[in-house]
Amino acid sequence: MKQSMARSRRLKRPCISLTFALLCLFLVTVVYITAYTVGKFSMDARGREKLDLTDRIIHSMTKRFQECQAQKQLLKNGHTTARMALEIAQETKKKLEMELGLMRNRNTLMLQSVEECKKELELLKENGRGAVTLALQLDRLTKERQFYMDAIAVVNGSSDVGRRQTADVFAAIAKEFDEWEDAAQNKTELLTNCNNAMRRYSIVFDAGSTGSRVHVFRYNLTSTPHAGNFSWNGTRPSLTSFLRLDDELFVENYEPLSGLANPNDAVASLSPLIEAAKAYIPESLHACVPIEMKATAGLRRIGREHAEAVLDVVRRLFARGPFWMQSELDSVRILEGWEEGPLAWLTVNYLLGALNGDKNTATILDLGGGSTQIVMHPSDPKAIEAYAEFSYALKVNGRSFVVYQHSYEGNGLHAAKEQLLQAVAANNTGANSKVQEANKIATGTEATPGASADVAVDAFPCFPKGYVHTETGISNTRDGGKVPSMEECSALFRRHVVRKHQPCGSNSCGFNGVFQPDISAVPMVPVYAFSFYYDRLKPYIKDEVIRVQDVLDIASQVCRSMKSVRELLEQNDTKKNKGSLKPEMECFELSYLFTLLRYGFGFPPEQKLHIAKKINGFETAWALGASLVSLEGQSA
Questions:
Q1: Could you tell me which residue, 8 or 365, shows the higher pLDDT?
Q2: Res. 146 pLDDT band, cuts 50 70 90
Q3: In b/e form, how buried is each residue of 119-135, taking b as 16+ CB within 10 angstroms?
Q4: What is the spatial distance between Cα 230 and Cα 570, in angstroms, rounded to a whole number?
Q5: Residue 153 CA to its chain's centroid (Å)
Q6: Do β-strands 371-376 and 391-396 pair in parallel, antiparallel, or remain unpaired?
Q7: Has 90 been labeled as part of a binding site?
Q8: Which end of the chain is less enclosed by CB atoms within 10 A, N or C?
Q9: How far, in Å, CA of 276 to CA of 366, rounded?
Q10: Known binder of ligand: residue 473?
């Protein structure tokens, strides 16, 4: 009996131990679930609050950053009054204080979350020691939450490291505000001077292949653009609509930057030009004046690495002051060939007053030594909308223009002559038939009677009698030479240089396979021709306006009456020396001008041309257009 009872007690003890273990496991589970549920609910609510605070902070800082960028630009432009600057500073201070309060509230919530996580972990560990499985899970949970707390600590200041980083952020924000407020207060006089000045200035350097030139444009302010209530978010008018060009300082040197062996020599080359600008502009306005330099063909030819080294030196020079360089990369750079024409178009039409109202804009023709440009504004925008590579967008006086532009490289006056001479010489090297056949295929034209290659080589119709071109051997010496002929010279240009019938993939072509809107798309608008058009035609015209037919008549008369080369060299004909640097080239060059106008661009004989070097006393060059683009970026 005793043995039976003892056996029974031994059997019950394991049952009691198992029951106790299960009860402990149940209690731990209940505690865990309860703690998890309560904690999760609490953390979810706090998490939503933290997310809301974070969103508000981000929104506030983003908006403040955008406003600061706009304010910084207007401060530089000199279009913010002292009163406005102080109001902006005070408003920015309020926003910073609000953001600081939001950050502190968010930080407090994060610290509370971390402390609750720590307590929860300790509680779970303390009550779950008897359950091996739960202990392992709790260890894993501990590591995960520790990782989470470390991340929170770094970002939100819930550890020494985090608190230091948060303090650094607050200090940086406070420093930013202090610097901004100091700048606003220190520049009160500058801002007042810039805003109240009834004259505005713009400096444009033209770094060309023969030297550097500085244009300082002076504008009169026709009215006060700051009248009315001030609003950062409101639409502000273009500054150029309030300006009228009044005067220009022009100073040049003959030291091309492209010829400098050492890029650092650019400082010595440009410094006298900067000093001239400083003397011309009142010192109180120096910091308000934008300065820029655009380099043309000279720097394009020397290689990008060397050119960039020169440009970097110029950027550092301009950055020293006292003038305002709006953008380092854009203010000092190489001006691409396709930009020159549109900027010259802008110059001409600004001087004509054609950028306001419904007045027709002028077409411009620019003839240089190496290239020629044409820019027009078609009345129908659809004429060029499918040809993006020939379009150029401009905005000035609050109006937008999309113009057609093209620069014919190799079709400038000197390049065209050289191209023709080389073509004629190539046709007389024993391979005449092959070259002529290739020209027929390329141009779609037959040889012109009276201008065959074998005749042209020693009876070149563009030269005066007796002239020999030493570089190519082309001459007008056969049988003592013949009277030059504009018709025959033009025919050679049409065959070899101005190839009108070469296809361009459109029904409307210029020449040499280049798309160009039909001239009829710009019906009888003013056409301004300058550079070599002016230099070669001005000695023969009394009025500024002539017709294409007049160019034909002038060229024909000059060729017919041209003296022999001996007579040209012996006499001192003042009129002709003004018309050409080399009188023996006049028939040659005038024939090209007519060919380009009539058969290249396709202008009808009755088309009127304004042969202009200046309009209202200002040169028809791209520099003024660049100045207007720079000023257009300054809101009034």
A1: 365
A2: low
A3: ebbeebeebbeebeebe
A4: 72
A5: 46
A6: unpaired
A7: no
A8: N
A9: 29
A10: no
pLDDT at 130: 44
Say if residue 225 is preceded by a cis peptide, omega within 30 of 0.
Answer: no
Helices (H) and strands (E) in the chain, counts: 20, 14
On whether the CB atoms of residues 219 and 233 are closer than 8 A, the answer is no
Residue extents of the structural domains in the chain: 10-189, 413-623
Mean pLDDT, rounded, for 138-161 = 54
What pLDDT, on a 0 to 100 scale, did the predictor assign at position 399? 81
Structure tokens at 187: 């520049």
Q: Which of 340, 584, 589, 619 is catalytic?
A: 340
What is the per-residue pLDDT across 545-565, written as a single tens digit (0 to 9) for each? 999 999 999 999 999 999 988
Task: Report how far residue 52's alpha carbon sits from residue 47's, in angstroms, rounded to the nearest whole number.
Answer: 8
Q: Is 372 assigned a ligand-binding role in the annotation?
A: yes
Return the percent helix, strand and coil in the chain, to nearest 5. 60, 15, 25
Give yes or no: 471 in active site: no
Does the annotation place 369 within a ligand binding site?
yes
Residue 436 reports pLDDT greater than 50: no
Alpha-carbon span 453 to 474, nearest angstrom: 11
Q: Cβ distance 318 to 293 under 8 Å?
A: yes
H or E segment to which residue 495 belongs:
helix 486-496
pLDDT tens-digit profile of 470-492? 999 999 999 888 999 999 999 99
Architecture of domain 413-623: 2-Layer Sandwich (3.30)
* DSSP letter (8 states) at residue 428: T
Query: Nearest CA to 71 among 57, 84, 61?
Result: 84
